[in-house]
Structures are given as structure tokens and as C-alpha cells.
Amino acid sequence: MQKNNGQELAEIKKTLKNLLIKDLSLEDITPDDIRDDDALFGEGLGLDSLDAVEIVVILQRNFGLEVKDLENRKDVFYSIDTLAKYVLENKKNGS
Amino acid sequence: MNILGMGVISACGRGVDYFEKALNEGWKKPSEIEVPHLKNRKSPVYQVDLKDVSEKNLFKKMRRSDKLSKMAVVAASEAFRNSGLENMDKRTVGIIVATAFGAHVTTFNLLDDILDHGEAEVSPTVFSNSVHNAVASYISSALGIRGPSLTVTQFYFSFHYALQLSRLWLDEERCDYVLVGVAEQYGEVLRYIYDTKLTMAGDGIIRPFNFKPTYQIPGEGAAFFLVSKRNSDNVLCKFENILIGGGAEGPGPVDLDIIDTDGILADESVYERSLSKDVPVAAYSPVFGSVMTGSAFNCAAGMLMLKNQIRYGNPVKDNPHGLNILNDTRNGPVELIRCIRYNCYGSNAVIYLRKKSLAND
User: Fold this and answer.
1) What is the DSSP string of A22-82?
2) Do A50 and B56 touch (CB under 8 A)?
3) pLDDT digits (tens, 9 = 90+) for B72-103
4) What is the mean pLDDT of residues A2-11?
5) Measured between alpha carbons, how far is B292 from B219 in angstroms, rounded to an integer?
6) What is the pLDDT of residue B361?
7) Could you tell me where the DSSP H helices lie in chain B?
8) φ, ψ for residue B348, nearest 5 deg
């Protein structure tokens, strides 16, 4: 049975949260601690510019997405919500 | 060169107190890990468990670091704290890290990443942790130290060269204090080398006085010392002299010899020739494992003996050559200790540790 967009988006969010925790070594944080609309950088999860580069690597390795022009893609990297939508849209475009 | 503070993390646990306890209690069975390429699939190792470390605030500052850097920062932080000089001007403190293998675990992870994902998809964090001065950088960053920092990488005597360099920095007044120490991490590649080139102690016991054949059990950890020419009430003892390559006279009769035998050399008979029947000998590698920079851990044991005026009995007492080994732990005066290390070419490096003396230096 084919998944609908809502189900796929939820799965991508879950995957992204797990990947962020593992690959960014976010100790003492569980996926449930990260709200979908929390800001990833600054006041929110407290990530920084080096983490942004790590997220680019995460997207490349796990979703086959190449993010260029990182400086102008801040909207994509704002939260798990925006990141997951970007992954969903671009995976579909690519397929 | 006075020693104002020391910090140790090893398989014995995090902190000098745990190290001291281990010296008092003697040999303990190492942990065992699964190794797929071995016949019985189990292999002993003296491994550090960072879950024991309660300093979460310190670790928050180094979220991205690898285990090598974490161990080093924990030990360096303790050395700094124990000196009672945490509030000093951090611009006057230098850092020298000695290591034989450095961040080899992270370096091999990086190479694996390149092979698996290609150069474009390598983690920048893994890359930055694989560079040699990463450990010193993390110490500097976590402890706010702003003096010079350097990493000395040398196979057998890196700690000895680091100590000599510390003395030079202090003599040149490049800094007033130096945080000097060692860090080594156990990893699969090291395991492979140990298994194929050396003989593993299958029963989990390093026998430091066997000399030939020798048996090793890999260890890991970090030991750091805050040294200075300055005196203070917190002085533990002092590095009297560091001699590399032989030829020079020592500073006089010693009360105890500590030897670095741990099975990393296939033939350690050369140590026997450097010992005297009149001087008791000890070796503490069975407590922390076979480590290329094990001299620092043996020195830490020596420092505790000088500070507490106690002689720790050998953790493993097998003595096939009838040496004058320390059998039991007992109190008694200790003034000067000689720590001896040999490399595979028969050259040695010797560290003399002397009891604290406020009148001198």
C-alpha cells in the first residue's frame, strides 16, 4: 500500500530527529524532546554553523539530496518541519 | 619542575582517587570485548568507561569531540582543579599533549567515511577531530587556557620529550605553567596490531617481571600534570630530571625503580639489566594496561607514593628472575623514584621524581 504524504512526512521527521541526535552527538536528548516547529539553531536546539554543515552531509548521505548555497537556504534549515518538507519535496522531484 | 596537580582517567575509573584505590587493591580482571576475527571471539582490554564521568557541563562544551579528547579533557581538568590554581591568568598556561597514536580511531573512521561515501560526504566534525592538535585544542577550549599548545607524537618516548619541552618552555618563560600529559585510545586497528604483532595475555594478567616471553593487554586513558617552576603549598612532588638516550648521570641513589614493562616489547630483558638488587622495583601496568605512553601512568603512581609516603605493592607478583620486587603496600619514606622506559632498540628514557621540598626550586 502506498503511503500518503502525511505518513511519509512523519517518517522523514522521525528519521531526521534520530539522525540529528546520533550524528550531531546531542547527548541527553531524545527524539521526543525535539518539537517539529522548534528552531534548530540559536535559541531553539542550540545548533551552530558547523552543525549546519553536518546536516548537509546528513541530507546527502541519507536522502541523496545535495544542498548548495547554504547561506540562502536558511528557511529550509529552520526546523524539523521545514527540513522534512524540503526532503519530501525534493525526493519526489528527484524520483 | 614542580608538579602542582595531577589528573588521571583509566580503566580504574575517572580521577586520582580511583587510580589510588586501584593501586591499593592490586590486579583486577580486565573487561572483555567481542572480536570477530579471534578464535574464541573474546579479548581482554583495559577500557575507559566515560559513562562514569559525572561532569556533564564539561562534556557539553565538547559535544563534538571524540573519546580521545574527552578523556584528555577530563584528566587535564582534574589536574588543573587539584592544583588549586583554577583562577590563575590562563594566558600563562601552556598545553603539551604527548601521544603515540593520537586520534587514530577517528582518523580511521574518516578514512572509512571517504571509502564508503566519497570525499564530498565526509563529516567535517570527524575530519576536525582527526587532526593531531585536536586534543590540545579541546583542552584549551574547555578549560579556557590561552597559552601555547603543542602535540608531541613519538612512538616510545613522547611523554619524556613532552616533559623536556615543558621544562624548556618554563625556562624560557614562555609560560608560567604547563599542563602536560598523555592520551591514548583503544580501537579496532590497534587491537589488530596488538593481536598480530604481540602476544595477548589470554588469562588477563600482564606479568611485568617475565621479560621474555611477554604478554600484553591493551589499555587506554589519559594522565595530565600541571607543572611549574613556581612553588606553592599544593606541590605534590617534582620532576627532578628527564634523561633520554642514556649517558647522563642520575641525581643520586633512588628508593624505588618503576619499570614500564607491559608486553608491548616482545623482549623486555633489557629492563632486568638496568635494575639493582639493592633497589626495590615495581611495575603498575597490570592496573591500567599496555599503553605506549604508560610512563605517565607509572609516574602518576610514583607521584602518589612520594606525596603519601607509601610504597604500593606490585599488582602482579610473579617474579621468575628473583628480583627485589615490592610485594606489599606499606608506609615508609620515599625520597627519589626512577621511572624507566626502553624502546625496541635498547635505548632508554628515565624520569626522576623527587619528594616535595619547599626549600628548593
Assistant:
1) HHTT-TT--GGGS-TTS-SBTTSS-B-HHHHHHHHHHHHHHH------GGGGTTTTS-HHH
2) no
3) 999 999 999 999 888 888 999 999 999 999 99
4) 84
5) 9
6) 45
7) 16-25, 56-60, 67-82, 104-117, 124-130, 134-143, 158-171, 188-197, 269-273, 285-288, 295-308
8) -125, 165
Judge if pTM exceeds 0.95.
no
Show Cβ contacts of residue B326 under 8 Å, excluding neighbours closer than 6 positions. B256, B280, B281, B282, B311, B312, B313, B314
What CATH number should be reported for the domain holding residue B349? 3.40.47.10
Cis, peptide link before residue B213, omega less than 30° from 0: yes
What topology is assigned to A5-94 in CATH?
1.10.1200
Number of structural domains in chain B: 1
pLDDT digit string (tens) for B254-313? 999 999 999 999 999 999 999 999 999 999 999 999 999 999 999 999 999 999 999 999
What does B64-87 look like in DSSP terms, one character per residue? T--HHHHHHHHHHHHHHHHTT-TT
ipTM of the prediction: 0.79
Estimate to the nearest angstrom the gap between the alpha carbon of A37 and the chain centroid.
11
Contact B124 A50 (CB under 8 A): yes
Does B80 reside within a domain?
A: yes
> What are the tens digits of pLDDT across the range B119-161?
888 999 999 999 989 999 999 999 999 999 999 999 999 999 9
Q: Do B56 and A28 touch (CB under 8 A)?
A: yes
The dihedral through the CA atoms of B250, B251, B252, B255 has a sign that is: negative
Chain A to chain B Cβ contacts (< 8 Å):
26
Which candidate in A27, A29, A57 is best for mutational testing of the B interface (most B CBs within 10 A)? A57
Look at residue B360 and tell me if it is in a domain: no
Q: Is the CB of residue B121 less than 8 Å away from at least one CB of chain A? A: yes
Q: Does A92 touch chain B (CB under 8 A)?
A: no
Structural domain boundaries in chain A: 5-94
Show the domain range for B200: 2-355
